[in-house]
Design brief:
Layout (H helix, E strand, L loop, with lengths): L12 H7 L4 H18 L10 H10 L8 H25 L3 H14 L8 H9 L3 H8 L6 H14 L6
């Protein structure tokens, strides 16, 4: 039997309230909406504790995953993965902070749910860890579409010295 979270009793309660969500899937949807507003407006900064995405990340990281239902934990991981996935970019292009980009790429891979289709996170991980040959091999596993275009641009940009200079 699938356990339906009672929001008031859920360890995710603060996140539900902050985003106005009533279930784990809606929590993820609302988080994504906020994330996209921040990304498109280019105001994102992992140092800014007033940003709702940063508040949500802090809440989610303090929660013991074993206290959550399978569904809640899946969406928790997905949200944390997305936060760290975007934080890699901010570390590279916003702050030129290689150490933080390396840390965030490791955490993004840790949180990325199994069988998640995104392959750019691993590519960024390899590039910020100076593993260009592996990154080129990984890029070849990306077949087509926007991810392929992004992967090729990232490899080119990295090869031209554009990540941390």
């Amino acid at each position: 039997m699938k356990r339906i979270p009672v929001i008031a009793k859920s360890p995710l309660h603060k996140a539900y309230v902050l985003l106005g969500a009533s279930d784990p899937s809606e929590l993820s949807e609302r988080y994504l909406e906020e994330d996209q507003k921040i990304v498109t407006s280019r105001i994102s900064d992992y140092h800014d504790q007033k940003l709702i995405t940063n508040k949500i990340r802090m809440i989610l990281e303090t929660i013991d995953p074993s206290s959550l239902s399978v569904e809640e934990n899946y969406w928790r991981l997905n949200i944390l993965w997305l936060w760290y996935h975007h934080a890699i970019s901010y570390a590279i292009w916003g702050h030129k902070d290689k150490r933080r980009a390396q840390k965030y790429s490791s955490l993004a891979l840790k949180y990325q749910p199994k069988n998640h289709p995104n392959k750019i996170t691993r590519l960024l991980y390899l590039l910020v860890h100076n593993r260009f040959s592996e990154a080129k091999r990984w890029e070849k596993t990306i077949k087509a579409g926007p991810e392929k275009t992004t992967a090729l641009r990232l490899l080119k940009f990295y090869n031209e010295g554009g990540f941390f200079t």
